[in-house]
Design brief:
There is one protein chain. This protein is of the alpha/beta class and 287 residues long. It has helices spanning 10-59, 62-65, 74-78, 108-111, 138-146, 160-176, 211-221; strands at residues 130-135, 150-154, 180-184, 195-199, 202-206, 261-262, 284-285. It folds into two domains: 10-59; 74-285, no CATH class. A five-stranded mixed β-sheet has the order 1-3-2-4-5, sandwiched between helices. A two-stranded antiparallel sheet has the order 6-7.
């Protein structure tokens, strides 16, 4: 020890130890803050990535989601299916005879610029979930589309074997996905199609029925696209149920009765029933 260096007193040594301890604690706190900042940044990046991927998967066009929806799979090609089309949105107004307009007494062909319709003005009632071997008015089922439904139309030209396969598929699919109606289209479908799957804003036409294509469309669009997806599903307590007669409105009848109710003898066999007894008439209303 040099002559000019004086030994530290006990008090000075304690002070030095306290200063060293503070420096050690401050360094540990800085490292902890850095680790927390890095961890928070990583979590934020993961969350952003997940949201971005989810948003992409939700918003990407249907043709990118599966080969069947794009008409590119072997089954879709074998069934003669087009890629899912997205016709223009025609709005979601109700056809109200209390407010007369040119559309109030118009046939579907005069209301919808594309058919089967995927949007547009519609009758204020709707139909109960089900598989119906009947013609159900297109202006009525557009209301179901607004509530998130998928409608599987089949042409009168569809062969018996194909028709039975479609009806059986529909009855089975409804058990898991009640946002589905199968019904007969009143005329040949566009472009020679025999089966047409529609949801709000989306349509796929096929020459034949294929369960894989139908299932892909139902899984993608059921309760996903309509402006009011939480309004359904509907059963025979609040929706019309076709009976032995077609449910048509030529001309459009004035609404009456309670919300979503049908007048006349409209007995049903529940939400999955087909060909239920009775005739649901055109006097109905809903929201």
């Amino acid at each position: 020890m040099a002559d000019d260096e004086q030994p530290l007193s006990k008090r000075e040594r304690q002070k030095q130890r306290r200063a060293s301890k503070r420096e050690t604690q401050q360094a540990a706190a800085r490292r902890q803050r850095i680790r927390k900042t890095v961890a928070s940044g990583l979590v934020a990046l993961i969350v952003i990535a997940v949201i971005g991927v989810a948003g992409y998967l939700w918003q990407r066009p249907p043709a990118e989601e599966s080969a069947a929806l794009g008409g590119e799979s072997e089954t879709a090609q074998a069934a003669g299916c087009d890629a899912v089309a997205q016709p223009p949105d025609l709005g979601s107004d109700h056809l109200q005879v209390q407010q007369p307009s040119e559309l109030a007494d118009s046939a579907p062909a005069d209301i919808y610029g594309h058919r089967p319709a995927t949007s547009g003005p519609h009758i204020s009632a709707w139909v109960a979930t089900g598989v119906y071997e009947r013609h159900v008015d297109e202006r009525l089922l557009v209301h179901n589309l607004e509530h998130g439904y998928v409608v599987a139309w089949y042409s009168p030209e569809l062969g018996d074997q194909q028709r039975q396969a479609l009806l059986e598929w529909g009855r089975s699919a409804i058990e898991d996905t009640p946002y589905l109606i199968v019904a007969q289209y009143p005329e040949p479908l566009p472009d020679g199609g025999k089966v047409g799957y529609v949801a709000w804003g989306h349509r796929q036409l096929c020459d034949d029925f294929d369960a894989e294509v139908a299932g892909e469309f139902l899984d993608r669009f059921a309760n996903a696209e309509g402006p009011e997806p939480n309004a359904g599903p509907h059963d025979d307590s609040d929706g019309l149920t076709p009976g032995q007669e077609n449910v048509v409105f030529p001309p459009f009848e004035p609404p009456s009765g309670g919300e979503g109710s049908g007048s006349g003898d409209s007995g049903s066999q529940g939400s999955t029933g087909s060909g239920s007894q009775g005739d649901a008439s055109g006097e109905a209303s809903g929201s």
